[in-house]
Amino acid sequence: SSSIKRILVTGGCGFIGANFVRMELEQDPGLSITNLDALTYAGNPDNLADLAAEPRYRFVKGDVADRPFIMKLVAEGGFDALVHFAAESHVDRSIEDATPFLRTNVIGTQNLLDAARAAKVPRYVQVSTDEVYGTLGPDDPAFTEDTPLTPNSPYSASKAGADLLVRAAFHTHGMNVVTTRCSNNYGPYQFPEKLIPLFVTNALADIPLPVYGDGKQVRDWIHVLDHCRGVDAALRKGISGEVYNFGGRSERYNMDVTKAVLQLTGKPDTLIRYVTDRPGHDRRYAVDCAKAESELGWTQTVTFEKGLADTVAWYKANAAWVDRVKSGAYRNQEA
Ligand code: NAD
């Protein structure tokens, strides 16, 4: 059995964090998880409501940017590992106002690193994104872990800043840290401001689908559970100081994803609305995850076609979750 018995997860009420918490508790009966989440607009207690009676799960409401609070929580927690998902995560919001991105993504990460070091937490995992690598031309090779960081949005710049602080904690303080960089996730519990859940929920409600620019942006899509398995592999098997990329080997044009959503929901292409492109919109992301495959024994298990069909089915079957997110009702509760 694992030496990891107690994990502090941050951002567990968000999309990926919620999937990760549920996966970990299911796969390891000896594990307990504390979920620290500030419950911003993206934090939805409904995502883990089914764990309310689970004794191995504890929710703590708090802000990673609140340094005294974080220092105390980590000092008293007796954690074997800290897995940091909490972030401001939406590019469009970062273009509107970068301030919360610096506060949560940069300062919050340094607070957690300092707290983990002070409490001698044996393992720290930074959950990052392929967007820190910038953008690719149509024929460029995919991002590897050695691709220079050239982020283009305030969001990705703040995540790159956090990654560099993690790197510094390894080199300066000898902390045991691992960083994961993953491509675009999709799956259950994703807040419907991101492309796939926005388009699925709009299509199901016969609301138009706003496609940025020419729709020819290329993204690599990975099912959230494959990403969660990657974070788990990095947590348990990753070499300290290393970065591991995760991707879905599923590069798709945004327009093709849009058409697939319309097909799966049985809605007409006339729902498509072209809207002015996002300023500075990265053209293409593609991730080389050979290192994770060879060094962590990780591999994708969900194809994009199967994963997208399952995801559309999940949003259809969870109309109450969708209604509470879209109406804002999910915000009127504590945990
Ligand atoms: P999300 O926006 O769905 O969830 C973020 C969570 O963090 C929310 O529950 C929110 O309440 C919480 N949070 C925000 N600010 C906080 C603060 N100051 N203190 C404590 N909690 C706070 O995000 P997600 O899509 O689940 O992404 C999780 C992580 O994975 C992020 O670090 C993101 O950069 C990274 N990532 C996401 C993707 C993707 O496709 N979604 C891809 C690669 C990496």
From TrEMBL:
Catalytically driven reaction(s): dTDP-alpha-D-glucose = dTDP-4-dehydro-6-deoxy-alpha-D-glucose + H2O
A Pfam family that the UniProt record links to this protein: GDP_Man_Dehyd
Keyword Transcription regulation carried by entry: no
BP-aspect Gene Ontology terms: nucleotide-sugar metabolic process
Assigned EC number: 4.2.1.46
Example GO molecular function: dTDP-glucose 4,6-dehydratase activity
CDD domains: dTDP_GD_SDR_e
InterPro entries: dTDP_Gluc_deHydtase, NAD(P)-bd_dom, NAD(P)-bd_dom_sf
Residue stretches making up the NAD(P)-binding domain: 8-310
Cofactor(s) listed in the protein's UniProt record: NAD(+)
Database matches in NCBIfam families: dTDP_gluc_dehyt
Protein family according to the UniProt entry: Belongs to the NAD(P)-dependent epimerase/dehydratase family. dTDP-glucose dehydratase subfamily.
PANTHER family with a match to the protein in the record: DTDP-D-GLUCOSE 4,6-DEHYDRATASE-RELATED (PTHR43000)
Official protein name in the record: dTDP-glucose 4,6-dehydratase
Species assigned in the record: Paludisphaera borealis
Upper lineage: Bacteria, Pseudomonadati, Planctomycetota, Planctomycetia, Isosphaerales
Gene expressing this chain: rfbB_2
